[in-house]
Amino acid sequence: MIGDQLRRHPTLGGALDRSKALRFSFDGQRYSGFQGDTLASALLANGVTLLGRSFKYHRPRGVMSIGSEESNALAELRTGARREPNTRMTQIELFQGLEAQSQNRWPSLNLDLLSINGLVAPFLAAGFYYKTFMRPRGFWEKYEYFIRRAAGLGRASGEADPDRYERIHRHCDILVTGAGAAGLAAAKSAMQAGARVAILDEREAPGGWLRFDRNLIEGAPATVWLDETVAALRAADNVTFLTRTTAFGYYDHNLITAVERVQDHRAVPDPHKPRQRIWTFRAKQVILATGAVEQPLAFADNDRPGVMLAGALRGYLNAYGVMAGHKAVIFSNNDHAYRTALDLIDAGGAIEAVVDVRPSPAGDLVRAVRDRGVRVYTDSIVSHAKGGHALQACDVTPRGGGRPETIECDALGMSGGWNPAVHLHSQTGAKLDWRDDPGCFVPATAKWPCVSVGAANGDFQLADCLANGSEAGAQAAKASMGGTTATAVPGVRAFREERPHPIWEVPLGPDRRGKRFVDFQNDVTVEDVELAHREGFVSVEHLKRYTTMGMATDQGKTSNIAGLAIMARLRDKPIPEVGTTTFRPPFTPVSIGAIAGQERGQHFQPLRRTSMDDWHAENGAVFQNVGLWRRPHYYPHAQEDVDDASRREVTATRGAVGVCDVTTLGKIDVQGPDAAEFLNRIYANGFAKLPVGKARYGLMLREDGMVFDDGVTSRLGETRYLMTTTTGNAGPVMAKLEFYLQTVWPELRVRITSVTEQWAGFSVAGPKAREVLQDVIDIDISDGAFPFMAAAECRFAGAPARLFRISFSGERAYEVNVAADHGAEAWALTVAKAQALGGSVYGLESLGTMRIEKGHVAGTEINGQTTADDLGLGGMLSSKKEFIGKAMTGRPAYLAPDRQKLVGLRPVDGATWIKAGAQLIEDGAAAPPVQMLGHVTAVAFSPELNTPIALALLSGGMARAGAALEAAYPLTGESVRVRVVSPHFLDPEGTRMHG
Amino acid sequence: MAEITQRRSPLGGRAEARDINIPDGGTPGVALQHRTGLCITQAAAYPGCDAALRASLAEIAGSEPDARPNRSVAAPAGRLIWTGPAQYWLVTEDPQNPASDLAEATAETAAITEQGHGRVCLRLSGRDARLVLAKGSTIDFHPSHFAAGDCAQTGLLSVSCLIDCIADEDSAPGVGPVFDLYSARSTAEHFLEWAIEAAAPHGCRILTPGSGIAAP
Hints:
The complex is a heterodimer of chains A (995) and B (216). By secondary structure, chain A is α+β, with helices and mostly antiparallel strands. Chain A folds into 6 domains: 1-158, Ubiquitin-like (UB roll) (Roll); 165-292 and 420-481, FAD/NAD(P)-binding domain; 296-416, FAD/NAD(P)-binding domain, CATH 3.50.50; 605-664 and 759-854, 2-Layer Sandwich (Gyrase A, domain 2), CATH 3.30.1360; 666-755, Alpha-Beta Plaits; 897-994, Elongation Factor Tu (Ef-tu), domain 3. Helix content of chain A is 22%, strand content 27%. Chain A is built from 24 helices and 49 strands. In chain A, strands 8, 9, 12, 13, 14, 15 and 28 form a 7-stranded mixed β-sheet that branches. In chain A, strands 40-41-42-39-33-43 form a 6-stranded mixed β-sheet. Chain A has a 6-stranded antiparallel β-barrel with strand order 44-47-46-45-48-49. The longest helix of chain A has 20 residues, at 462-481. Chain B is an alpha+beta fold. Chain B folds into 2 domains: 29-36 and 118-200, Probable tRNA modification gtpase trme, domain 1 (Gyrase A, domain 2); 38-114, 2-Layer Sandwich (Alpha-Beta Plaits). In chain B, the strands form 2 sheets. Chain B has a 7-stranded mixed β-sheet. In chain B, strands 4-5-6-3-7 form a 5-stranded antiparallel β-sheet, covered by helices on one side. The longest helix of chain B is centred in the N-terminal third of the chain and has 12 residues, at 50-61. The model of chain B has no long low-confidence stretch (mean pLDDT 94). At the A-B interface, strand 8 and helix 21 of A face strand 3, strand 7 and helix 4 of B.
């Protein structure tokens, strides 16, 4: 083990539990830390300052911040399938055995050969690849491979994510995002008013900067108030308190999404719990207490490891007991950063200098620092940070010019002031206002019932945060529930702070050397912004896209303001006139797994199973998904493929008997005194006089006259019918019937109900079908008593059932519906009887083959473009009644003689398969363009006819009977000579099904 | 000829009793029970016949259904649940199937349709039951918004579901809220797997399939 936490302060570090030492590794080196550490704080405590390499130039980088705005210290976490790239070390809670690797370096972090990019930096300025790699034309694909490897972030594991995720919804009166001083004060007053409150914080421990700063509330350390307030909120029944939870998206009507890192702080997640959980909040009132982000200063080589935000420097000290440097320099444009100097001195550290750009700062904190004997360079800048893998010194130069003074230091805390974290507010489309003092964007009028408080609203004093937060909580409670609640605001000493001096870029020193980074993560410098301006990309949106500023995983939290301020200077306009780019979700990166939640793998979509599904699986069925249903495609024996199995199944069915699961067909119960009238209007053929106990094939048209669906409807009683639909159209038909009943014919005394789920269905087809069923059905099913198209309610081996003498296969056939809880047994019993008679079960392939042999139309022919006449069903349209679609059936285009109509096809050679989807043309040798005459809709091999057959929609239809055409399939270059025949290949008289 | 008399649930043995993620000596946050042998009789009144239907239901079930949307009632015969305008479910347990009696009583006024084989019912109860529901549905399950006698037809994850709150923290203190979740038979397996996965983080006890109020 190396490191040994030499930089750990002996007593400071309120976030740590020093009784729990943890071991972890970074780039294979083992270190120790404490419970409560982040990966960043633990590495800093161990004196590790080189944590990563930059995106483009591969420059050495250390940690810059203490929060989710981190742009430098990114790591790959964990190994194997759980490897996760681009995690921010500042947010990774240390756990026992944590393994992290630096990224974007080769071969190692210390010796990264790609840092040569820094030497050729002049060629790699913004937009370099647009200019450099465009020639020779077509070579981009070759360059791209290397560019992507050289300029990259971490690597995804490439394996399936082994963890589980979930989503959850929560309604509340008030949602508070951020549990710092303002957020806690808001939640507390809302809680006391009795509102349903939810409060979120992205860290493991709430408190925000109350934990990073030293403050007194009511004369006691702020953590006392913090602990009491958190305890009260957690104990309240009306409060949901979530930590490790980041609100990342704010959408219309106060819908806010947040990700909770439920188990990211564990080496291996508990398998029963989600790794992460997405919360969707619907809140009557939203209080944004998201705090503010300290901004860096763009001076030369401001990215040296050891340079960090001034607030982070003291935050690591106060919360984690980390003395990030023994000799520190503070470079600031504001009073607030002087706190860092005070805290470091009080902890025993040395402040070499405070460099302040202002000519004569004299606030309370400035005076306190001076009183400690620290040298304050006023009206000065840090013009250059020096060092390689670690900071060694910095040059301090008077702003008016002059010789730089080099100060040795190992830590440099910079502060360009604070900018409110306005991201969530901005995501709603609400505007921002520029506030000159202290020089930041603050939320303008909110779009939804929402208020920003505390630092998120530009109020940086603790006293303001507590007072405004408390008031906002009470007001939100009043708005959502009515009534008022008095709130008590704890007393806090306010410091007199002077106005910061806005400075976004720092002039280069006399040596004119060094890179002044604006966007650290995407390696965008002041010079890149200037280049964009010179080349005409002056709008902030163009600036962003041309330089990629603000487009990295940190989304420009520390760069956007500086970038647009520099552009404002270049354009000689005030900052608010230049504007801002639009913030969009997510605030911080969200894993795809969390967004998918439980809807992955087998739960990606629900799978519908029939009552007989277990039987199919146990008997080797090969399944095919039809919509959400899974249905047996075929039941192979031994080495059979689909063609072999189907041929055997069809032969057994036509020769003896076959049994097929048809549960998935839509079934709609239609009841009422006006049911006959209703059906008569729905169907194109007559239903008014269908007798009880009879079934009829029905054809439904769309309002435009095209065929919509077909099926058989049976009259089970005087006022009761059972309609069946195709599997795919079960939902749409039901919806259409409901629509007509509720809005067009509400006077009809009819009620409809889907009973698809209530009844299991199977067909028994073949010459021995009656033999199979006659012993188990409790009614007489002789041909005399139960002829073709008969229907009846009955009992199947004692179970409630319905029997229909209908046929899709063209054989003598019965369709049995059994109450679904009895379906599996009824099926097994029937199959056993069928097999004893030499029969078989059959699947969709055989079902399709037999319907093609019979010329029955299905989904590929009822395709939304075919009329009843096109399908050979024109004779069914009733001339004696009105029905849906009738008015349109006479449109001239529907009657054109060259319409594509249903025909049968056989290969001229009697042997070659015809491709489904093939185009029908006159002459296979003709040069394109060739007139398309139609296309093949369905193909099969007919065991009965011993030849491939097909159905097709062909211009002119049966007027071309006997013609030889070419069925061309240009996709594979195949073509078959086919002859046009009747679509009724088998038993056109229907002798078999009539029995 | 053997008779088929036993009803076979679509969940087969998948919902057998077991504990999931309950630490030794700990109590489950939720309990799940597959309710078997239910008769679900849907009664839908023809236009203008709602009052007559409710009177018939009162006669057969022992209580009149609540005509307000998304309300349910505990009746002597079972549960009366509003499922649409002038449409109710009467949920009873085998062998008392009221469908034919109801059909006779409402011949002129309503359509009676059996749905008991077409639905699977999971009873979800316990202190964290509301959290489990919130993982699948967007509606507000807070006790002030969804209490005993409230019902909703909504989506749970990706299947549609009728949720009937049959007891809440006030009416069944110590038990926690109790919900009956009715979903389509064909997606029963998917539904059960979802429910178990959503319940597991809270500690889930799966009770022996059957009937009666399940409590952790």
